[in-house]
Amino acid sequence: MADPADAFDGDLAGTLERNIESVTRRRSAVAAGASRGERLALGIGRRIGRMTFVYANLASYVAYVVATRGWVPGIPGFDQDLYLLGTIASVEALFLTILILITQNNAAVADDRRDDLNLHISLLAEHELTQLIKLNLAIARRLGIDAADHPGIADAVHDVIPEDVLDKIEGEEEANPRA
Would you list the domain boundaries of the chain? Predict the structure, then answer.
């Protein structure tokens, strides 16, 4: 039987590179699967979250006010009470809010996927560690070492049941609600 340790190549950089490529491919696939409208909304959402957008917006509003006052030669004054500007600003705020919500919803979906992946990897690592502890205990028994009395071993030889942990957390939250 082949020794599983022989399969370890010890190349952390190669593993890291493979993981990075895998994540990058997944992100590209998810982005490619987005509809044209989603891609447009996300692209705009990324741009409005920058200071250049703030500066451009500020410059546009200042230019509008200057133009409405008649301070620009050849342009007669208009919208003296800035009613039109208020309407434009309100409509802009409405659309910006919608674009920001779309961007946040997209980010929340990606966060949920990452959280699920992290949970799965953590549970898998916990299970593998439990199996290693059991193997070490078997080796210790074979060598005549009584490791079962070591503090924490009794808990460490059992897999964590996610439902039990969640039930415990929810019970604690119900018993001690946050103010």
Answer: 36-175
